[in-house]
Amino acid sequence: METAVLISKIIGVIYLSFGIGLLFNKKYYSKVLQELLESTTYLIFGGFLAIIFGLLILEYHNIWSNNWPVIITVVGWAALIKGILLLAFPTSFNSFKPLFKSKGVLNFLTVFVIFFGCIFSYFGFFSN
């Protein structure tokens, strides 16, 4: 359970920081996300990082249970799969480029990231 709490703290702080950044700097993040999707270097680097973090999470926390830590396992698998897809099929992410031009998607992403940041922060910092 200590590993789940630590990972929840890390993910919670990252998600909340990113969500708050999205909330207060929409124009900046809209531009940055477009640039990230345009750059093959960032996509490849992102694939490597996603695989590394996904495997680290799964190595230390691959727990399928009926309580909250299973969310961490799902995040680990999602990161691993995303990383593999980024490296194996980098052009498949071209279809996501138009989505980030829409304010509705950016607003949804902001709410989504803040919501999960709050959930992970709660389990990491306050549930004990």
3D structure, described in words:
The chain is mainly alpha-helical. It has one domain. 78% of the residues lie in helices and 0% in strands. The chain contains 5 helices and no strands. α1 (2-24) crosses α2. It is globular, with a radius of gyration of 15 Å.
Descriptors:
0% strand, 5 helices, single chain, mainly alpha, 128 residues, 78% helix
Helix content, binned percent? over 70%
The poorly predicted ranges are none
Strand content: under 5%
Strand count: 0
**Major beta sheet summary:** none
| Tally of separate domains | 1
Determine Rg (CA atoms, Å). Answer: 15 Å
SSE series? HHHHH
Report, as a whole number of angstroms, the end-to-end distance: 10 Å
Coarse shape: globular
Assembly status: single chain
Concise summary:
By secondary structure, the protein is mostly helical.
Mind sketching the topology for me?
Blueprint (H helix, E strand, L loop, with lengths): L1 H23 L1 H13 L1 H21 L9 H19 L14 H24 L2
Helix pairs in contact: 1-2, 1-5, 3-4
